[in-house]
Here is the input.
Amino acid sequence: MLTKMSTNASAEAIRALEEALGPAVVLSGADIPERNLQDWSTLGPVRPLAVVRPSDAQGVATAMRIASRHGIAVVPQGGLTGLAGGSRPIEGAIALSLERLVGIEEIDAAAATVTVKAGTTLEAIQRAADDAGFFFALDLGARGSCAIGGNIGTNAGGNRVIRYGMTRDMVLGLEVVLPDGTLMTSLNKMIKNNAGFDLKQLFIGSEGTLGIVTRAVLRLHPKPNCVMAAVCGLGSYDKVLSFLGSTRRWLGPTLSAFEVMWPDYWQVATQRVPNIRRPVSGEHAFYVLVEGMGTHEDEKARFDALLENQMEAGIIEDAAVAQSLSDVKAFWGARDAAAEFRQVLGPHSSFDIGLPVADMDIYAGACRARLARELPGCESYFYGHIADGNMHIIACVPGAAQQPYEAIDDIVYDLVRSHGGTISAEHGIGLKKKKFLPYTRSPAELELMRSIKAALDPRGLLNPGKVV
Amino acid sequence: MLTKMSTNASAEAIRALEEALGPAVVLSGADIPERNLQDWSTLGPVRPLAVVRPSDAQGVATAMRIASRHGIAVVPQGGLTGLAGGSRPIEGAIALSLERLVGIEEIDAAAATVTVKAGTTLEAIQRAADDAGFFFALDLGARGSCAIGGNIGTNAGGNRVIRYGMTRDMVLGLEVVLPDGTLMTSLNKMIKNNAGFDLKQLFIGSEGTLGIVTRAVLRLHPKPNCVMAAVCGLGSYDKVLSFLGSTRRWLGPTLSAFEVMWPDYWQVATQRVPNIRRPVSGEHAFYVLVEGMGTHEDEKARFDALLENQMEAGIIEDAAVAQSLSDVKAFWGARDAAAEFRQVLGPHSSFDIGLPVADMDIYAGACRARLARELPGCESYFYGHIADGNMHIIACVPGAAQQPYEAIDDIVYDLVRSHGGTISAEHGIGLKKKKFLPYTRSPAELELMRSIKAALDPRGLLNPGKVV
Here is the structure.
């Protein structure tokens, strides 16, 4: 009986959506594209009630209003590159895809801003900024597929957080559709605006559970004119921290990356992943990729001097300095090789935990030992954006018929809890990490998150069951 | 009858507070210090029911819990330097002062963070950071008196936003007492933490209406090793914008200030305010103070080269370059002279509006003309952090028996509305600008602010009547 009512409600909702938005915007039944059934979270496909693809913000608001009126849940979808399941469809819910809400609306050179529609890919924004003589600083591996709306919804991090901040730091204005279908346009271009609560902060990083981003005003930066990079070998984590301190003081705000790789990671990346150059030879306790983005060529000499100084001081054991942009690219190859670990190791778990910078190596040692002890044969690889407090882990039992995913999660997150870290530095909670949120957030914090969710979405219709 | 009940409730609340916190913490009647009766908003003194001064976060939570139980409102107070009335007492409400919740708890060199109690002055934090070899970048005129809790509550801006961001950008973790007395400790030190909603954003800039900040983890930066500054004369606003673009490209992330002064302002600042040096001679349509903070002495040559280049290109008409730190200080003198305008002009209105950068001069022209036309004798002076989209205005009718404060507000804010600006770039809304909030925020935004307030503080006990 209940199912029947719900089926009727669903059919009525689809009819109402088709009527309001046109049948081409609403895809149901066999017309639902494969692409909309899942994201990159590997949680597997789910068939939504319908896929709705409006081409303007009003269409998104209309869809949300109709869904709300019929009590149908809505899952917002962008480039579907999320790793935590935030845009994975829900059975009986509408997948509201922003894939047709694309385009650059304006570049304001005086304000140094770009206004974009939420479905626009990150790469398209990077290119438009470049064409206009600016630099859009957000960058991550999925740049060609991910949508800026999703980057905002997950507060994406990426490679240059140390210099330019997270996505949150690049958003000046937002237009959002609220769970009741209200279109809230707040396309502020000003860096400073203290007129009441800064509402956009609510929607950045809340993974589409409080509102659907339809447009955004983003900050642009001046183009960097030279890139300097080196890969260094160091003998201890204390020396890594000392090198980080010196690098911060020496390079100041031009420091754009400080990536640390533990030796187990380094070995797989440079010896087992094909076509990866090994910039420094010999065995070291740590490998650091340090990068600076300068405005003038003469900053290269200073970068070289930093490395010489650290070498003479006995902090660095060995260093290779990039002589060209293709060297820089090759150096990043060892760091980006993580994306190829699946080919080499087979199925595995991957993590984006955060930890106090000083505790990273203690954590890595404890985690590696406990995984190996409790899950015989388990190998683990540690690397990450250390200066940002963000460590990535890849862990698996090579050759196992069935990977002990849950047991790996339990160990990794239990140690995160005892080290006062975070279960997600950049990918978000979505569905995959929801169970572990209390490891990182106190009961008071969780209660407040639920209050906020209830205030904005009292009927729980927007991306239900995600995050909180 | 109602008053009597309320008086009884008040007396009971004070008794309960004294019992829980000790009589020395609770000051009522004649013991209420003069200092707690008003802030810098010039709205005049108000006598609160009592002043409560706990010395730890638990005490703040206890006070809030008792107030909540007795239905008594609470106004949080820090350094009382706010300009919008956010910490002005309310009759019948408790003033909850954080003046005894002071001290630096920890400096973590690896994470580059400082953990502080909310009543600590900005200057004390700057000094502690300096002593530890770091730089705490927030800076504003009231540094010796303002408390960091108030800086966070108002999302203070100040002089270096262009390089280091607002207070929001410096806060990594917060401890907050919620309106029901819950103590929510979220002293995160990690730059990246995407584990659920980023709750701290709610409390930053909401002027003590959603929670009371008790402790904070703040970001530290490397110390800049050289400061470069120049005052330039330019012939048009287009040239100012062109100069801004070149400066951004040339100095990159070392650009720390780009302050523009219109000629009316310049004349009062350099000719009527005593002891202010006039760095450039001659008459110009605009005066720009540009500042860079570098990590190496060799950056000075680049700064000089920028100015030469802009001079040769005909963008700058004249420039004086600081040769020493005392020059830098003297150059800022002309900009900081605004604080002395009261002595020269007498009572006046002052504003911290925000505007799209490209529209600033059009706004200034329209505002000046309309003030003079509608309020005979009205003079207005324009200056500000132009690269941040933030303009300050001082306006008055010199010698008038009664300043037309309301009429000036109406004109200034009406034009802000028609130019798509903000009524507050940095000082906040408090009581003084509440009436004008709809000029800057849409009905949908205001409705959402009210929903958030109702969700966190359903009985309206925390700083009631402020902001929303």
